[in-house]
Amino acid sequence: MNLSFLISNPIINVSVVTWIVAQALKTVIDAIQHRQFDRRRLAGAGGMPSTHSAVTCAVLLTSYYLYGFSSAIFALSFVLALIVMYDATGVRWAAGLHAKAINHIVKYLGENDGEVDRQELQNLIPQLNESLGHRQIEVACGALLGFAIALIANFLR
Question: CA–CA distance from 34 to each of 38, 76, 147 (Å)?
Answer without folding.
Answer: 9, 38, 28
